[in-house]
Amino acid sequence: MELYDVMRTTPAAREYTDDPLPDDVLARILDNARFAPTGGNRQGARVIVVRDKGTRSALADLALPAARRYMAQVANGESPWNPLRPPRVDASTIEATEPPAAMSAPFRKAPVVLVICLDLGVVAAIDQDLDRLSVTSGASVYPFVWNILLAARNEGYGGVLTTMAVAEEPRIKGLLGVPDAYAVAAVVPLGKPVRQVTKLRRRPVAEFATRERFDGPPFGA
Asked: Residue 7's domain spans which residues?
């Protein structure tokens, strides 16, 4: 596929057929994704390829607590898991909330789930001393994750970058033997999508790009 076509037609694919994702295709996906940029070319990402059904089911279960809070906050008109706005729903309401099966189905139905870890010993968190949530260390891993999804699309497969299970990171580490020095950055189910999207809906450039300042005039061609 042409690069721009891949960029414009790579959705969050959460439903998969029963088609397998062979090792040779997955190897090709990872082989191309590894060229994503990282700070200092330190390449701190590690990938755990999970095919075992029981392990995939366990990962799905580990995503449920965060999904319960997510859905409880949505039902309460909140922005879920927002670091600037603590939840207004209480713990008992969250615990009683049953997330839709579709939120955990990708882990159970995909032929393979990738657990993407990041070596914290090689990241540069330039914003670590600012009075806000640190985000810059994600630059060392998320371009790689996106490259995986782009490469998967090019091969006729698809997936979704999920982070719900990360709330239970200690249990993921115990399940998969992840060392303490690594963070779990994403859990990515991959498979053959039930539907291949040909067009995505996104805001036009003029709605999110401005000239010279945040409050500058809209940028346009």
From this structure: 3-52+108-207
